[in-house]
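Work Package 4 report. The design task specified in the project plan requires that, given a folded chain encoded as structure tokens, an amino acid be chosen for each position. We show below one input record used in the internal validation round.
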């Protein structure tokens, strides 16, 4: 008996740049606690669990170098209900984003400015929602099964 002969529910993977908030919503909708993270060719890059997301929210994500996080600006705008004059598809480094509450607040010329009605402490608390899943997904020690693998070998 092959793995393909077993009853398997197919779960569409998420791309590595998808926000934690979007991944959480997908898990809740699909009623699952784990999502595969795949590239454009559907190769497995890692897995993301509700536990991974919960840890990112509860801890101050001290293990993540915030200066190196790259993400689509749209992730940030969605999480903060924000607006920006920069195209939402642009990939930005979190360190290059300046958050303001009112238009007309001065900012450096090359900065990506995001306007949000949230106060600074709220932004700090919920910005993690915009992080791409690849910042916290599990990438190592994954057990990968292929449809052509023998089920008996896997079950033993």
């Amino acid at each position: 008996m092959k793995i393909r002969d077993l009853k398997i529910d197919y779960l569409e993977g998420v791309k590595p740049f998808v926000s934690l908030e979007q991944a959480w919503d997908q898990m809740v909708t699909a009623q699952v606690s784990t999502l595969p993270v795949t590239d454009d060719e559907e190769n497995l890059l890692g897995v993301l669990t509700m536990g991974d997301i919960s840890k990112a929210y509860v801890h101050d994500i001290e293990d993540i170098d915030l200066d190196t996080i790259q993400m689509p600006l749209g992730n940030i705008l969605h999480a903060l209900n924000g607006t920006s004059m920069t195209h939402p598809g642009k990939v930005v480094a979190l360190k290059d984003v300046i958050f303001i509450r009112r238009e007309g607040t001065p900012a450096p010329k090359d900065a990506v400015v995001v306007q949000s009605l949230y106060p600074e402490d709220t932004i700090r608390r919920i910005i993690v929602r915009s992080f791409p899943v690849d910042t916290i997904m599990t990438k190592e020690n994954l057990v990968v099964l292929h449809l052509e693998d023998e089920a008996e070998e896997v079950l033993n």
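The first strand starts at residue 34 and ends at 38. Validation will be extended to a larger panel in the next phase.
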